[in-house]
Amino acid sequence: MELPELTVVIGLIVLAVAGLVALRWRTPTRIDDIEPAVTSQAGLGAALRRVWGQGPDEGTWQGLEEMLLAADVGVGTTERVIEGVREARPESFDEAREALAGQLMAELADRDRRLHLRGSPAVVLVVGVNGTGKTTTIAKLARHLMDEGRSVVLAAADTFRAAAGEQLTVWGERVGAPVVTGQQGGDPAAVAHDAVTSARAKGADVVLIDSAGRLHSKKDLMAELAKIHRVAGGDRGVDEVLLVIDATSGQNVLSQVSVFMEAVPVSGLVLTKLDGTARGGIVISVERELDVPVKLVGVGEGVDDLVPFAPRSFVESLLEV
Ligand code: GDP
User: Fold this and answer.
1) Of 4, 119, 158, 263, which sits most exposed with the smallest number of CB within 10 A?
2) pTM over 0.85
3) Is 43 a residue whose pLDDT tops 90?
């Protein structure tokens, strides 16, 4: 090949590679594909190294128990995990760490963590105690779905707090999604219904519904959420009911969320504030106790700080030394 031809061929190859890179860069990432960068304060790996000492003895297992409980792994899970690690008969710190990783992975195995958004529009109801991060999570989820090329409508169905509607409206403007609001004190189910109707008229893909989370009037709240669920779902039902849980609230979170579990069929958990002082083990105990998969985790206040929950990366980050 002559030199000019060779230059042209090399030039074409460079252009093709650059094109591919650019295409990959611009292809919207599906929310299911995002690699999580979960941080945690648990430091289980370092704690394990401390309790390992000279090798396994009764003190080691007791230390392991204390460290798992301190990391919010929960009593039942801690017992199962320790039994599994003991049965593996680790002889070195590395073997113990590997056995512990295996046990924690097993606790998180066999769960469908994908979001199933099949309706047109798909309807997602977001529930949880006030202050856990519902509104922020809705904004983050809207951003992710829109990055994937889906159009989103937001519904401010917490008509009890005027600030809730205002906050969602601000987020809607920020991410570029229309927000359907109602009168303060109006019927939240009517807002959800209007949002679904508006989404259908626009041909929008997904409706994300914010809801109230005041716990002091448990019965009213349950009736309100059940009605939103019924009305927004119409004949084909709601696609996902996501329960938002603040990971920093520790083990008492379970008593707080029972009202939501009773009111609506929760299909996925979102653990927020895992970037803060949360002890990562809460993810495992909450999932086991509620028997609902953790689908997403919040790792910051920014609109991009929502990632799909990936057990392997999570356990690795928990066990960092
Ligand atoms: P809501 O009352 O359940 O709707 O909760 P908000 O969405 O208003 O959130 C309450 C507070 O938690 C706000 O200050 C948010 O910025 C903050 N927040 C929400 N998610 C996260 C998260 O993943 N990490 C951190 N650090 N803060 C969060």
Assistant:
1) 4
2) yes
3) no
239-256 pLDDT tens trace: 999 999 999 888 788 888
**Dihedral-angle region of residue 279 (phi above 0 means left; psi in -120 to 50 means alpha; beta otherwise):** beta
CA distances to 11, 49, 187, 192 from 181, in Å: 55, 53, 11, 9
To test ligand 1's pocket by mutation, which of 127, 129, 136 has the most ligand atoms within 8 angstroms of CB? 136
The C-alpha torsion from 79 through 82 and 86 to 87, rounded to 10°, is 60
Within 6 A (CB) of ligand 1 lie: 128, 130-136, 213, 272-273, 275-276, 298-301, 305
29 neighbors 147 (Cβ within 8 angstroms): yes
Residue with CA nearest ligand 1 atom 6: 133
| Mean pLDDT, all residues of the chain | 88
Q: Identify the three-state secondary structure at position 156.
A: strand
CB 128 within 8 A of CB 257: yes
Tell how far the Cα of 147 is from the centroid of ligand 1, in angstroms. Answer: 21
- Among left, alpha and beta (phi > 0; psi -120 to 50; other), residue 131 is left
Cα(286) to centroid(ligand 1), Å? 19
Report the alpha-carbon distance of residue 59 to residue 178 in Å, rounded: 58
